[in-house]
Design goal:
There is one protein chain. α3 (about 35-60) packs across α4 (about 70-80) and α3 packs across α5. This protein is mostly helical. The termini are close together. It has one domain (about 5-135): Up-down Bundle (Four Helix Bundle (Hemerythrin (Met), subunit A)), CATH 1.20.120. The protein has 6 helices and no strands.
């Protein structure tokens, strides 16, 4: 495994641990605490960007075709057997949610974001890291 891939994995693991320490336990707490809400959304953005960066690093390291966009990076890793179709779809959805949060396209559904932050991004990130570690 290249040093860049190892460093990116460590970065993501750090972000996940940090998110877990600030994450409110309930939706009502999340909704009321604007600072925690903003911090959680920012960690979601950072984690998702780092997952995308890792996907590109793995693609380059494996000598695979470069994607035309970020979501395609996960499709390439799926087709090459690095990740399964379900995880690929989940990571694409996380990327879409990240874009929604970062660029504020329309109104952001706080309940949907809370669910993504508290249950999906942590689980899916860990599955992705496990799959990458196994292959590299």
């Amino acid at each position: 495994m290249s040093a860049r891939i190892t460093d990116k994995i460590l970065e993501i693991e750090t972000y996940l641990k940090e998110l877990e320490t600030i994450m409110p336990k309930s939706y009502s707490s999340y909704e009321k605490d604007l600072m925690a809400k903003a911090a959680c959304e920012r960690y979601f953005e950072k984690i998702t960007e780092s997952l995308t960066d890792l996907a590109y690093l793995v693609i380059k390291d494996a000598g695979l075709s470069l994607p035309e966009d970020d979501k395609e990076a996960f499709s390439i890793l799926e087709k090459s057997g690095h990740i399964d179709a379900n995880l690929s779809q989940k990571l694409k959805e996380a990327k879409g949610m990240r874009n929604l949060i970062a660029h504020e396209y329309g109104s952001v559904d706080d309940e949907l974001v809370f669910d993504a932050i508290t249950s999906e991004i942590i689980r899916d990130s860990r599955l992705f890291l496990k799959a990458i570690k196994k292959r590299h």
